[in-house]
Design goal:
The protein is mainly alpha-helical and 225 residues long. It contains 14 helices and no strands.
Length: 225
């Protein structure tokens, strides 16, 4: 019988072994098409999606927090300005910025607070990103969401893009809902609960389903991530 590393459940070990990567992205997309053939239309029209991977880091959490409920362009501009201001985006450098400096690069009062909460959690050891690698998806979410400003969507995106877990569908992502509406030819865009029920049938490939739907949504609108 195969042994799991000490302290890891079989599920957590499987999650890590099946991380989405450049080697298996296409095969996972093809397996998803066998479950839901409408995804073949995305592959035929626009090809395979990008991996859209990000480091497991504080900078990535800030990037995702900035993307909460704003456009991609707005979030990217703010993140880039922050990098230009402080160089490497670390908890130590972020926590040293005052309100005016953060406002100058586009942080709202709320996201300033969220960024500081996240930086403090890492600096005090309340949150240790390296420890998340050994946890199942649900436990990763629990640990991340202990930090004010990290909610369901943010933790899902971190699981999907930074940790590259294979079976994650971000809750409440309007682009995913709209992409599925267009792809499936629905009269009405599904809400968050309806969409998650639909996406349940795509397990264990929900992460590549999300990538395909983002790819489709952006490509249909002539935009890039």
């Amino acid at each position: 019988m195969a042994q799991t590393p000490r302290g890891l459940s079989i599920q957590a070990t499987n999650d890590m072994n099946k991380r989405v990567n450049q080697r298996n992205l296409k095969s996972q997309c093809n397996a998803l098409v066998d479950i839901e053939p409408r995804f073949q239309n995305v592959l035929d029209k626009y090809g395979y999606p990008p991996l859209w991977d990000k480091p497991e880091s504080f900078a990535t959490l800030i990037d995702i927090i900035l993307g909460q409920q704003v456009s991609l362009d707005s979030a990217r501009a703010c993140f880039d300005k922050l990098g230009n201001l402080i160089g490497e985006i670390t908890p130590e450098r972020f926590i040293g910025l005052d309100d005016d400096e953060l406002r100058s690069v586009g942080f709202s009062r709320q996201k300033t607070a969220y960024g500081r909460e996240t930086a403090n959690a890492l600096l005090t050891g309340t949150l240790r990103l390296e420890n998340l690698r050994h946890l199942e998806d649900a436990m990763v979410k629990t640990e991340l969401e202990k930090v004010k400003g990290i909610g369901n969507w943010t933790s899902d995106i971190y699981l999907l893009m930074a940790m590259l877990r294979p079976d994650v569908m971000p809750r409440g992502d309007i682009a995913l809902h709209a992409g599925w509406q267009d792809l499936a030819g629905l009269d009405k865009r599904p809400d968050a609960d309806e969409f998650l029920m639909i996406a349940a049938d795509w397990s264990p490939y929900r992460s590549v389903a999300a990538r395909l739907l983002w790819h489709f949504y952006l490509s249909e609108r002539g935009r890039r991530w």
